Structures are given as C-alpha cells and as structure tokens.
Amino acid sequence: MPDFRIEHITRYTYPAPVRDSANQIILYPIKDIFQEVTRQELTITGDPVIDTFIDYYGNEVGTFTHSEPHTSLTISSRLWVTTHHRQLPGNDIFPGQQWEALKHLAHMVPYIDFLKPEYFEGVDELLAIVQAEKSKDDTPYQVALRFCRYVYDNFKYIKGVTTVETTMDEIWKLKAGVCQDFAHILTLMLRLVNIPARYVSGYICTHRNTNMRGEGATHAWAEAYIPDYGWLGIDPTNNCVANETHVRLAVGRNFLDCSPVRGVYKGSSDHVLEVAVSVGYEDEVHSSHSVQEETKTPEFKPVDDRPKNSYQVYMEMLQQQQQQQ
C-alpha cells in the first residue's frame, strides 16, 4: 500500500501580455478502491474559479478562464495518493466461455468506443500478426499479456522520433516511439481480437531503487477488459501489469480524450511552455532518486519557442503533456 507524492507543474510564458486564457484540465486522479487521493493542492495563476464536471468516460474535468492580461500562466498540481495492489485475473473459466462473453459486449454502450479499431494502411499486416500471436487455447488475459510483450519486444523506446501528429502508419513503419505510441499500438491490437481496450494517462511511481521507462513525466498505458474481472492495466512500455505503481489520471479512446492540459488564449502565438513532474514516496526523507526529485524544484523542460500558429500551439501543448521522458 504505497503512499506517493506527485507534483505536476505546467508553465506558460509570453513575450507580451495575453488575455482570455480558457483552459481545460484533467489533473484529478481517478478515485476508486485501488486508488485513494488523500490530498490535492491545485494552484493556478490569478486564482480563477475552476468549474468541474464528469465527462463521458468518467473522468473529472476542470475548466477555468484567466481573463486579465498576463505574461505567464502556471498550473500546479500537488497530489498525495495511496494505491492498493489489485489481484490479477484467474484462469478458472474456460477460454471459449470468456471469448463468448466478449462477443456480447460489441453492442453494449460502455464498450462500443473501446472496440473500434483505428484504420491505418498497415492494419492487415497487424491483423496477421495478432492472429499469429493468439493461440486458440489462450484466455483474453493471456492474449493481452502476449500482445504487451510483442509491443515491448518489437518497438524501440526512442524519445523525440514521434509527436502527437505522428500517424499510426508512421508509428508502424518506424517501429519506435514513446509510451503514448506503445499504448496506441497495444489498444489497437486488443481491439482487433474483440477485447475492449482503452488508453490511460497518469504517472508511473516506481519501486524504490527501480528505474522504469516513463518516470519523471506523465505516462500512458492501456487497459483491457477481461470477463468476470474488469479493466486490467497493461504497460507495454515496461512490459508489466499496471498495478500499485501506476497512478491513473484519465481513461479514453486515445490520448486526445485524456490530455492533462489544453486551452486557447488571445495574444501572440509566440510563447514558451515548460512542464515538470516529480514523484516521491511519502515516507522517504533521504537519498533515493524519486525523493531527490520531490524535494527540489522540479526540472522544467522547455518547448521550442519559435513563433507558432494556434494549431501548432495546441498540438505542441498536447505533445508536451503526453510525450514521455
């Protein structure tokens, strides 16, 4: 039952005053029996009123407007989260019964969006691979783990080779990317064999002295729906089940449904965007890498500050929030 402290700071600076900054934030972690938010401190420049609502996928979403002229905007979220281990699915149901149960979900509203595979030119090639990887005696759980391993083994984790504008075809040809790309490929593979799959954004909080890909930034993974069990988190970036070390922020069809911060403003498109994420254990006070990050000012990572049009501003904002370290 680990207790984590997480700090997620987004900062915009502008060369001249801007105004009417309207934003949407998904920075409120999912709350259920496996994840307790014991405390959250959310501070925003100008102290605007934040209106919240629950979206179609069950995520808590906040909206706010900073109307006054300003040359910087900082959104700071500090979290204290307790996670609980979730037992893994059993294999006590015959595979045929489980696959038959999945067939009945095809026309059920909660699952329809998570069963629609994204079309791309290489889909036939990928379909042949998933059919080869899937054994007739496998349960959906076993298939999900095998697909996770396939992505981990066959796609290289390389920062900077993809952006949020990179298409599925380009990812498939590159066979490389970061966690959001790995999550998109895995969700597509699962959907091709009629397993509902959804995209998850959040944070990875590693065990003490254990390094994992994606720490130190927002992270992304997939969830597969397993009959008589529910949603199972699977992290293809690290080839593991997403359990008590993964803190969930939001779920959706893809990263666009889960972006932590997005918005628009009036003023010059020239700006600098910086983001910092740090994670530490609540009971640590010395020495570990996670705590060092937690107890110092988080390292901000600037985005290219060349002039951009509003579409570029929007897309790069999403990229910075979802592309991982």
TrEMBL record:
Domain Transglutaminase-like: residue ranges: 171-238
InterPro entries xref list: Bac_transglu_N, Papain-like_cys_pep_sf, Transglutaminase-like
Name of the molecule in the record: Transglutaminase family protein
Organism: Mucilaginibacter ginsenosidivorans
Region (Disordered): 284-307
Listed Pfam families: Bact_transglu_N, Transglut_core
